[in-house]
Each structure stands twice: as structure tokens, then as C-alpha cells.
Amino acid sequence: MKILLLKDVYHLGHAGDIKKVADGYGRNYLIPQGFAVMATAGALKQAESIRAKAEVIRKQMNTEMSAVSERINGTWITFASKAGETGKLYGSITSQMVAEKISEKAGVEIDKRQIDIQPIRTLGEHKAHVRLTIDIVPIVNILVHREGETPNIGGSTEAEAEVVEEAAEPAAESAE
Questions:
Q1: What's the whole-model pTM score?
Q2: In the chain, where the domains are located
Q3: 3-class secondary structure, 127
Q4: Contacts of 3 (CB under 8 A, 6+ apart)
Q5: Among 76, 86, 98, 118, which is most buried by a count of CB atoms within 10 Å?
């Protein structure tokens, strides 16, 4: 089925693009959600105006989100978790948990659907992509360590000091 995209769709294309997609994907998701319309002759005439409007909106969003991207790109977030001897967690670190930590650090609301990561079930370092816009996708580093242990982030002493401060804050709050 051929469709005309009305909005930017991650991994598919930009608004105004004409794409061929599976019938079910178009009929059951893209069209009902308002992301696309059938590529009829009338809709194709509107493609250029849709593309121009979307380009203006995309540039505005990219300008706004580039500052947020600079703040969170390459930052480290840490999670203390219980784990077995093999390094397997008793539970998992979900995209919701990652989104909450990033929102705290960036000061901007990040939705769990913007985080591209499978649930983390092992100790160690992991990476997550944060889809702020279709063009801006910063990478956040995640460190999962055992509860009670001091995390060791890639040999960076400044990052270690920041993590130790973060770990000490909850302990100080619970002592009160």
C-alpha cells in the first residue's frame, strides 16, 4: 500500500514522503494514528505543502532539542541493583526507569517511548538512544552496579565523583 506521511515517523520517513508499507501497518497503525493518508491523486497534490510545513516545524523542534541533546549526550546514569553471582539482576532496569533518570538530569520531560533500549538484566555498562526528534538521537551511558558497591565508570574520576555524590544523597536523606 502506498501512503503519504503527514508527520515524521521514526525509521520510516519525513512528513510529505510517499512510502510503500505493508497493508496492515498502514491500515491499522499509520492511518488511524494520523501519521499518514492513502496516496491518492488528491493527496499527492498536497504532498509539497505538507513537506514545506513539516520542514519548518522540524527545524524549530531541532533548534529547541539541540540544547537538551547537548546536555544529555554522553552522560552517565547509574542504577544500584541486586544481582546474583553471575551478574544477572534480580529484576531489570526498564526504559521507564531510564527515562525518569534522564528527565531528572536534563530538566525536560522524556517519555519512556523515546528510549530505545531493551530491559537491562545484567550488571555493567550499557548504552541507550534517546529519540528527541527524528534527526536528534543522543546516546546516554548506563552503568548498573551491585547495591553497596562503588560504581566504576570507564576510569573517569570526575564521573566517579559525581556518581558517588548521587549515591550519597539518598543515604543522607534516609538518615534524617
A1: 0.69
A2: 2-45, 69-175
A3: strand
A4: 18, 19, 20, 21, 26, 30, 31, 36, 37, 38, 39
A5: 98
Say whether domain 2-45 belongs to CATH 3.40.50.2000. no
Residue 45 · residue 110 · CB < 8 Å: no
Specify whether the CB–CB gap between 137 and 62 falls below 8 A.
no
Q: How far is CA 106 from CA 93, 100, 132, 168, in A?
A: 19, 10, 12, 20
CA distance 62 to 169: 34
- CATH number attached to the domain at 69-175: 3.10.430.100
C-alpha cell read off for 40: 491518492
Residue 64: CB atoms within 10 A of its CB come to 14
**Cβ atoms 75, 139 nearer than 8 A:** no
Cα torsion 121, 126, 132, 133: sign: negative
